[in-house]
Amino acid sequence: MAKQILVANWKNHPDSLRATNALLAGISRKRALYKQISLYIAPSPVYFESVSKKIAGFSNLASQDFPSVLEGTHTGIVTLDILKSFGVKLAIIGHSEMRALGETSKEVSKKVKLALKSGIVPVLCVGERIRDEEGEYLGVLRQEIKLSLEDLKKGDDVHKLMIAYEPVWAVGKKSKDAVSPDDLAQAVIFIRKILTDMFGRDTAEKITILYGGSVNPKNIKSLASGTGIKGFLVGRASLDAKQLEEMVKELTT
Ligand code: PGA
């Protein structure tokens, strides 16, 4: 069976290199455990050098975002080439916190295409802001997925894509606000249906679906069982060495 995937999205934390190194020291004590899954750590790029050295052999470096420009000279931008030179293997794209700052699905779609072209695994984040009882959120989700993938053509290595279903209402909340396993299973079927309509069944079945939003050691196992997801995008709980260890233990035992 394929290893479970856990992408640790550290956002703008920890707030210093010193605190980052302390966290890494705690995490690397459990390197044998982390080798049992596919662990990706997405720190702030300013910590890349330190993180990449300390996680070598048990985790890969991931990026939280990247700009949709490849060529030319740009002030204030960390391009995909620079990220790749540090060994970045995977990039989070279209996170709701980036969309809240104005990133559009059109830009997201360009980035997904660029990542695939550059040999970086794109983790496309999608998710409804609110979940209404009438089910209108499903139309919102469908539209977001379609627009966020509109630049992709068959043959663009679409099967390498990962989708992180991250309902916005569940991100950064307490554990009771994470999606329920039943609702997650339904969402995965719905997303896979949209992908089938867009890219055909064979490709759609190969696309990995992850879940993100208030994942923690208490809920990770039930969210992983029978829901059709292959892993997680984790924010807060991945910034605590003990909680990270507990989550991975839950996934591997
Ligand atoms: P959270 O964040 O685990 O803190 O809810 C998840 C995310 O933003 O990817």
Write structural notes for this entry.
This protein has an 8-stranded parallel β-barrel with strand order 1-2-3-4-5-6-7-8, surrounded by 4 helices. It is α/β, with parallel strands linked by helices and 253 residues long. It is globular, with a radius of gyration of 17 Å. Helix 1 packs parallel to helix 11 (241-252). The longest helix is centred in the last third of the chain and has 19 residues, at 181-199. Helices cover 41% and strands 15% of the residues. The protein has helices at 17-28, 31-34, 48-55, 80-85, 96-99, 105-118, 136-148, 181-199, 201-206, 220-224, 241-252; strands at residues 5-9, 38-42, 60-63, 88-93, 121-126, 162-165, 208-212, 231-234. It starts with a strand and ends with a helix. The structure holds 2-phosphoglycolic acid. Residues 9, 166, 171-172, 212-215, 233-237 line the site of 2-phosphoglycolic acid.
